[in-house]
């Protein structure tokens, strides 16, 4: 410790004597920091998504069970044992497999993607199944903008072509854009629609039609012709580029004449089978969803994307196409949230500066103290940007909370320097002012360093949080810790240098007022009559406060027992209150936009979903709070969030200034009137967070039913959903993968196949071509590539009788109907099959209208355990908001125990000199007595922690009755601030003992607390003012998390201040006395 003190003395001394150099460097570094901070990436939250690689595999025509067996299971088996894989989840849909691989936090995502690609390349999949594709790596929020195209003059096929081939390439060229998804009900294709009756009349089958189409649309290069002088390319033009040319293709030549494709099929441009669709305000539309890359700057990407769209606007308008450019724009919320938090930060800083100026009544001292704020915050921002951390509401919130601690270092120094300089100015033997400044800085530096260490130690649990909690809150703790460390460096360098430049003249010799008692430097004894008096020339507000406070405290000191009982009762009451208070992992975010998830019965078509959605959109747009509603249904090709045709998302944009809570209530009331669909409402970022919390289940409560047999887990899941529906505040209860999708099972008969000389695959290929369609080639519509597809006519495809009558060509015996080769029966099956950790899983989602999500989840769990019988082989897992909150609190509880151990060690070091010295005589205290004295003083200082927590809990209860995770982290921050003030009192009392030979009595404690009164009050006051704007805007966008944190801080600062000023001195007098031999 001696060496540390020597280093501090050397650093402070060098800063005083080289103050010009120090201040010049500070100005230069501040300028560089301002420039550096302008380059920072901004977003509303840090990257919070887990490290995950997503793989999609197209399997056209396969059912979910077939996709699971033939595609998903082999892919899972190949990837489950990979290095670093933490969990494997999958989803098998009709014609599509989606595999999600979650990795440990210590791996590099690009390396993970490379390893996944290497492993999956070795998997052999059935013929007709596409190669596994790694989905582009998007950011946590994913969507950066959503736009739409509508027109009264052009078809949806035209709009889709414009979006796909004119707009999408330019959007993909924007730096930071990772994918552009197109939702359209119609996608242009050149279709050969075969009439099965005509085929039968000409004794043809679908495979002959497919082969002829492939031959007509195929394209091969002719090579080149070499002459002695040159090489001449042979360019062949033989394909049929138009529907008319393709219809004229010869299918078969017979003695009766030539049979052309046009004789057995209608060849025309038509839409591919729809897998998705969209609308804007109920009008059919093509929806364009732009997704940003992982780590991209959302604001920059948004501006660049909008610039691309703006370049297209005039040309589209001239064609009679309306471009809706901002159906969804997360940057709006980011801008408002960042402005709100930034304004809170600046307003808090201004309030702090104003209070410092009014308290010190000295512009030079106020300037020195206030400069610590910009210097410390700029230094912290610079380091954060250098570390690659985005500037978001969490980092800015951490800086706002740190303002009080940041300025506190400088305030304590400046206040003590002023006091010592005033004393020196009236001393009989004054010292050099620069020596006084050095001594004044060192006098408080030990206590401040230990207090700063305590402040930093209490945020360690937040830095160590795992998973989503760590990714969200660690940047806040980083910003807070960096600002505190920067303020300590400023206090050791810039503050002494400025004091030497601006305050040194205050220490010059001045005549003493008549009758005043002289007060010398630190080595001079203090007369008993001056022990509790304010120093000479102290600012009037401080002097009045000190006199009034010491008079009040002198009367309260003997009454330590009643004060302790009152405080104990308050602590017990707060503990009981906190135990009964619910809360949530994160509060609702005021984004100005909601997503209404609508789902019809399993098997509903795209058109049915769009029609029902149009009715809901019309009702929603009648609400006064709603500006616009856009709908997208199903999925887009290679969409990372694949949904069935029965699922839709309605993006509800609110009008500026609309009350989000009131709008949410009105939206719920509207959708409750549509009995033919189930609905779930969320905001965009809340949903992304919920997805991360529950691994794909975007709801406050997620019940995962795991097992092997679909029938068993579906039965349990239905019972769980039924129980949840009975809870009073439950809403949006639904199965994530409802069973009951209608299907026709086609079971080939092996005996019949042998009798007709057939193998299974040709029969399956015929069925696939007839009803799913087979790609035969590509032609160009202008410059746009268009697939050529062979399929039955729409009427035939939708007629179950045609399935049985479908003719299958046999090797030698002509044709046979499919009904003779297979058993065809009606059945129902799952809409999709999901796996989690190698088991099948059915998920039940539920939301609540209550703000107390934890209480709702507790009631739900109790009801499920009481009313749902879980058979062997089936297990339940509870995920969601409350589960994440409880896991985070448990981890914080364990880490806080370690923090208390560290604090005890730290306080023992800080107070060890006090406990080992009795009235200036260290030899009078034995080692055993010193250990006992230290322990008692450490325990007394630690009592300030529950006192601070008491006020934080009561404040959280008063403003809403819930204890969010943000409020809990605010309680952690209170620990350091409260301990810091308590350390100041004990450290100064010990100094008076050591350096002035005073006894541990009422007069000494009164003098110690009075001397530090201004510093303690200002510490609490400036911290409170720094976070006051956040607390006042508790529910404003961007303050949803820091607001409850600020409220907890304000309440805790009040009770901590009262305890440290009135209860702690009485307890210190009674139990903190230094015992000597």
From TrEMBL:
Keywords from the UniProt entry: Membrane, Transmembrane, Transmembrane helix
Gene designation per UniProt: czcA_29
GO terms assigned for molecular function: xenobiotic transmembrane transporter activity
Compositionally skewed regions (Polar residues) per UniProt: 519-532
Signal sequence residues: none
UniProt region (Disordered), positions on chain: 510-537
Cellular component per GO, a single term: plasma membrane
TM annotation in the entry: 344-361, 368-387, 393-412, 447-468, 480-504, 556-578, 892-911, 938-959, 965-987, 1013-1034, 1046-1069
Protein name: Cobalt-zinc-cadmium resistance protein CzcA
InterPro entries per UniProt: AcrB_DN_DC_subdom, Acrflvin-R
């Amino acid at each position: 410790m001696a060496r540390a003190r020597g280093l501090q003395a050397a650093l402070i001394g060098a800063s005083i004597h080289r103050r010009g150099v120090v201040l010049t460097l500070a100005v230069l570094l501040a300028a560089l920091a301002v420039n550096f901070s302008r380059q920072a990436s901004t977003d509303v939250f840090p990257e919070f998504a887990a490290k995950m690689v997503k793989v999609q595999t197209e399997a056209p025509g396969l059912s979910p069970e077939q996709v699971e067996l033939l595609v998903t299971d082999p892919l899972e088996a190949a990837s489950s044992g990979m290095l670093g894989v933490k969990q494997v989840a999958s989803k098998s849909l009709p014609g599509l497999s989606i595999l999600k691989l979650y990795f440990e936090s210590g791996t590099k995502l690009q390396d993970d993607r490379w390893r996944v690609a290497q492993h999956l390349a070795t998997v052999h999949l059935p013929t007709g199944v596409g190669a596994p594709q790694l989905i582009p790596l998007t950011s946590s929020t994913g969507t950066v903008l959503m736009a739409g195209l509508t027109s009264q003059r052009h078809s949806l096929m035209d709009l889709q072509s414009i979006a796909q081939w004119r707009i999408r390439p330019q959007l993909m060229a924007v730096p930071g854009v990772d994918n552009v998804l197109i939702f359209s009900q119609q996608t242009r294709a050149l279709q050969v629609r075969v009439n099965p009756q005509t085929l039968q009349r000409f004794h043809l089958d679908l495979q002959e039609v497919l082969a002829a189409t492939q031959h007509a649309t195929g394209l091969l290069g002719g090579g080149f012709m070499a002459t002695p002088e040159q090489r001449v390319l042979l360019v062949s033009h033989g394909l049929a580029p138009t529907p008319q040319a393709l219809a004229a293709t010869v299918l078969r030549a017979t003695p009766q004449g030539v049979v052309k494709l046009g004789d057995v099929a209608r060849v025309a441009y038509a839409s591919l089978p729809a897998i998705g669709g969209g609308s804007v305000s109920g009008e059919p539309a093509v929806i364009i969803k732009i997704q940003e890359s992982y780590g991209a700057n959302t604001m920059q990407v948004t501006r660049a994307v909008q610039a691309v769209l703006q370049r297209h606007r005039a040309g589209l308008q001239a064609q009679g196409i309306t471009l809706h450019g901002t159906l969804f724009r997360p940057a709006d919320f980011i801008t408002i949230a960042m402005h709100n938090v930034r304004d809170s930060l600046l307003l808090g800083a201004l309030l702090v500066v104003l209070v410092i100026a009014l308290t010190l009544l000295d512009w030079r001292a106020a300037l020195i103290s206030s400069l610590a704020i910009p210097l410390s915050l700029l230094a912290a921002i610079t380091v954060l940007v250098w570390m690659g951390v985005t500037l978001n509401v969490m980092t800015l919130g951490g800086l706002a909370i740190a303002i009080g601690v940041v300025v506190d270092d400088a305030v304590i120094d400046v206040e003590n320097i002023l006091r010592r300089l005033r004393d020196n100015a009236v001393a009989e033997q004054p010292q050099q002012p620069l020596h006084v400044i050095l001594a004044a800085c060192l006098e408080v530096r030990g206590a401040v360093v230990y207090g700063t260490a305590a402040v930093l130690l209490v945020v360690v649990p937040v830095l160590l949080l795992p998973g989503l909690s760590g990714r969200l809150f660690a940047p806040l703790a980083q910003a807070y810790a960096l600002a505190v460390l920067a303020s300590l460096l400023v206090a050791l360098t810039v503050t002494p240098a400025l004091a030497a430049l601006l305050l040194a003249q205050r220490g010059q010799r001045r005549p003493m007022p008549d009758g005043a008692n002289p007060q010398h430097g630190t080595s001079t004894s203090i007369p008993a009559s001056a022990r509790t008096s304010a120093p000479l020339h102290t600012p009037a507000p401080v002097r009045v406060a000190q006199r009034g406070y010491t008079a009040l405290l002198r009367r309260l000191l003997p009454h330590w027992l009643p004060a302790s009982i009152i405080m104990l009762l308050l602590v017990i009451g707060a503990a009981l209150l906190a135990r009964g208070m619910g809360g949530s992992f994160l509060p609702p975010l005021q984004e100005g936009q909601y997503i209404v998830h609508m789902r019809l019965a399993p098997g509903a078509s795209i058109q049915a979903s769009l029609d029902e959605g149009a009715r809901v959109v019309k009702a929603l747009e009648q609400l006064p709070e709603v500006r616009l509603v856009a709908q997208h249904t199903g999925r887009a090709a290679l969409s990372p969030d694949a949904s069935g045709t029965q699922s839709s998302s309605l993006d509800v944009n609110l009008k500026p200034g609309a009350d989000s809570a009131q709008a949410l209530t009105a939206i719920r009331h509207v959708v409750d009137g549509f009995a033919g669909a189930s609905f779930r409402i969320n905001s965009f970022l809340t949903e992304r967070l919920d997805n991360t919390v529950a691994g794909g289940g975007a709801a406050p409560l997620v019940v995962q039913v795991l097992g092997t047999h679909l029938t068993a887990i579906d039965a349990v899941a239905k019972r769980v959903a039924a129980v949840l529906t009975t809870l009073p505040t439950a809403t949006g209860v639904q199965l994530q993968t409802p069973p009951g999708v209608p299907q026709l099972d086609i079971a080939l008969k092996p005996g019949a196949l042998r009798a007709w000389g057939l193998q299974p695959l040709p029969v399956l290929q015929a069925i696939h071509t007839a009803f799913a369609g087979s790609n035969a080639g590509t032609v160009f519509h202008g410059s746009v590539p268009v697939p050529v597809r062979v399929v039955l006519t729409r009427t035939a495809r939708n007629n179950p009788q045609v399935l049985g009558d479908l003719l299958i060509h046999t090797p030698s015996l002509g044709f046979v109907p499919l009904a003779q080769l297979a058993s065809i029966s009606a059945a129902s099956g799952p809409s999709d099959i999901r796996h989690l950790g190698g088991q099948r899983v059915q998920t039940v989602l539920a939301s609540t209208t209550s703000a107390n999500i934890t209480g709702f989840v507790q009631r739900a769990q109790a009801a499920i355990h009481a009313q749902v019988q879980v058979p062997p082989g089936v297990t339940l897992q509870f995920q969601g908001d409350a589960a994440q909150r409880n896991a985070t609190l448990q981890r914080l509880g364990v880490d806080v125990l370690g923090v208390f151990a560290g604090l005890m060690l730290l306080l023992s070091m800080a107070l060890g000199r006090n406990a080992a010295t009795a009235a200036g005589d260290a030899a009078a205290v034995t080692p055993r007595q010193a250990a006992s004295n230290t322990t008692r003083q450490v325990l007394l200082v630690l009592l300030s922690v529950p006192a601070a927590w008491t006020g934080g809990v009561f404040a959280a209860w008063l403003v809403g009755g819930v204890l969010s995770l943000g409020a809990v982290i605010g309680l952690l921050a209170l620990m350091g601030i409260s301990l810091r003030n308590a350390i100041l009192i004990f450290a100064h009392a010990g100094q008076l003992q050591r350096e002035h030979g005073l006894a541990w009595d009422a007069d000494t404690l009164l003098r110690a607390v009075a001397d530090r009164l201004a510093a303690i009050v200002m510490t609490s006051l400036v911290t409170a003012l720094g976070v006051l704007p956040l607390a006042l805007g508790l529910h404003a966008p961007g303050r949803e998390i820091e607001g409850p944190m600020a409220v907890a801080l304000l309440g805790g600062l009040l009770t901590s201040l009262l305890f440290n000023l009135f209860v702690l001195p009485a307890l210190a007098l009674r139990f903190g006395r230094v015992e000597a031999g």
